[in-house]
Amino acid sequence: MGQKGSSGLFRAVSAFGVVGFVRFLEGYYIVLITKRRKMADIGGHAIYKIEDTNMIYIPNDSVRVTHPDEARYLRIFQNVDLSSNFYFSYSYDLSHSLQYNLTVLRMPLEMLKSETTQNRQESFDIFEDEGLITQGGSG
């Protein structure tokens, strides 16, 4: 299963990333990316497709309290095919559009800071015009 290192620890699995954690009735599992394929480069940032994942039960098996429905939940979860159309990047934010990312990348740091400050200054109290009392106000 694993390789023994000089420290006496065993390597259970090698992974390219963590998809996340999931909890069923018996405890938590970690979902790892075990196989990836480079699909593209966007501005020097590598974009990968998840090819395979591995789900590992986190607590030690010796403390596991078995539940009759655990296997059913595992099967249902494993029916989600993470190897079809799931992409990731170590350095590029895939949750935003290309246009947004390019705009942010080209914007000087000072401009980003002033924009954040300006947005805070433009905030307003929605109850101000209604004559309602707000926290710290007597309006």
From TrEMBL:
Instruction: Extract the InterPro entries matched here.
Output: Fig4-like, SAC_dom
State the source organism's domain of life: Eukaryota
GO MF term (any one): phosphatidylinositol-3,5-bisphosphate 5-phosphatase activity
Say yes or no: keyword Membrane present.
yes
Q: Does the keyword Nucleus apply?
A: no
Gene Ontology BP, a term: phosphatidylinositol dephosphorylation
Q: Name one GO cellular component term.
A: endomembrane system
Which subcellular locations apply to this protein?
Answer: Endomembrane system
Q: What is its main location?
A: membrane
Keywords, sorted A to Z: Hydrolase, Membrane, Transmembrane, Transmembrane helix
- This chain's protein is named FIG4 phosphoinositide 5-phosphatase
The record lists the organism as Aotus nancymaae
